[in-house]
What does this fold into?
Amino acid sequence: MKIIACIKRVPTTDLQPRVAADGKSLDAAGVQYMTSFYDEIAVEEAIKQKEKHGGEVTVLTIGSAEASKEVREALAKGADKGVILVDNAWGGRDPLATAKTLAGKITELGADLVLLGRVGTDRDNASVGPMLAALLGWACVTDVVGLELGDGKGTARREADAGTETYAFALPAVITCQKDLNEPRYAGLKGIMAAKKKPLEESPCPPATSQVEIEKLALPPARKAGRIVGEGAAAVPALIDALRNEAKIL
Amino acid sequence: MAMDPYRPLDFLELDDQFSEDERMVRDTVRSWVSERWMPLVMKHWEAGTFPSELTPELAELGVFGPTLPEQYGCAGLNSVAYGLICQELERGDSGLRSFVSVQGSLVMYPIYAYGSEEQKKKYLPKLAAGELIGCFGLTEPDAGSNPGGMTTVARQDSSGYVLNGRKMWITNGTNSDIAIVWAKLDDVIRGFIVPSDSKGFSAPEQKHKWSLRASITSELVLEDVRVGAEALLPNAKGLSGPLGCLTQARYGIAWGGVGAAMACFDEALRYSKERIVFDKPLAGFQIPQKKLADIATDISMAQLLALRLGRLKDQGRMKHWHVSMAKRNNVAMALNAARVLRDMLGANGITLEYHTGRHMCNLESVYTYEGTHDIHTLAIGQALTDIPAYR
It folds into this structure.
């Protein structure tokens, strides 16, 4: 089985963001990067499915050459090869531009299954997976928490508002991964050494033609300081008064 | 790593001095320590226990003997990567780093360096996989800084060897499957691989420690312990055998001290920025800033020392006096840093909710073991003057 896991390099979630001078992007100074949380789950699922069914896992990303760090981590965990489509302006791509580029490369590579995180933790669009499936004309199940694959087909579970939905689909398919799907493994030290010998292809990426562009980026307003109205049961009337008349939430 | 509040100090931007795989090794171990070790350490330190349930995870990570070759089930890392592993483990606790140091540098290394091919094949893969845990018996109740004064003896008989003696301050002793025991055979120090289930072998735990509490420390008692001829390490004769192992372990300690200091610094820096006194953060006053500046400088210098030591080791140029300088400096630095930074945490710093006091207590052991601070002083002195001043 040929499996492709798509990953995105995103700022670490403990980043204290600052807006850059252009007012449209994050100030890159001091920013540390990581694989988007849900994409780690996609990589883990790809490796687990390979371990179960055999085959090969390719990790695919669009980004600067520095994304080799995140791709190598996936190789260290057990993926077989990495592909970086090098675009130094990767941060400005809209979801459709990303999906089109990925679809082109996936068509070229060939795959039975494409796994992505349900959402990138930087921009929160949750769009690339479904768009990619539409462009490829493949089945798509999003926010998957359970995945079983059989001969040319599979079933996927997802948690919906009303309960658990189970879908049957034919391969090839695009699956986006929710956090309960698995527990990502650590890259063992032997894996890190083995990853140095695995192929990592860097190829140029067609420039993005995004249909939407970021016009302005602003941080949320700073939270106001809290206020302690008193202590113990005696403070309850003051608290209720404050919630009713100041906060106006009662 | 994502949700990890730990912010390692890298004031001199040394990150680019490490290769991508060295950084990946470091970050992997750092994440593991944050996610798996840190939630347990306070409980175990307080109870005086080691969380043995984590041993399989440590093995899975590959931290046991990681510089040894792949053919023995090890990762084949370079020494700088191994140093970074020790740094990150000791960021968690000196006891954790000790556990791993002993297994790798003091048990696997002597088997690898001094053992027969059969011994290597028999033991190294299982030690790497954590299926066997080992300990190292050199120090005795009356032979610490002068290991040549040991009284443990081995006597050859028709079927192998008979060992008698006592060893003291043995990390992992009680929970070991094998012990590397150093004993005098015809007045020459030799190493033996002793299974802990041998008749006459016992390893009572040393209790009531206020340091390295999340690490098992034991006494080894050998009363007519019989081992086969295959237990002898064929290629170590004399004090250079055990001292060669200690050079490996001390190398890791030089990096570990940096990790312990980084843990304390991170905690005190965070605390001093959040703690409000006289209407402004503690960090906004001159005396706390001087302490932070001093410690950040000390840590940065120790990081440089460890890095240089590691590069020398990987080039095959490291001498034992280089290790003495790094162990001596970096552990003393860490101990001082822990004391100063504990002070910055105020009364909170004396509780186990904060990590700095725990590191401070642990580092008292690290200052003393694997060559005391003073003995390393004399090792450097001898390298400089060509005059030994030990006795």
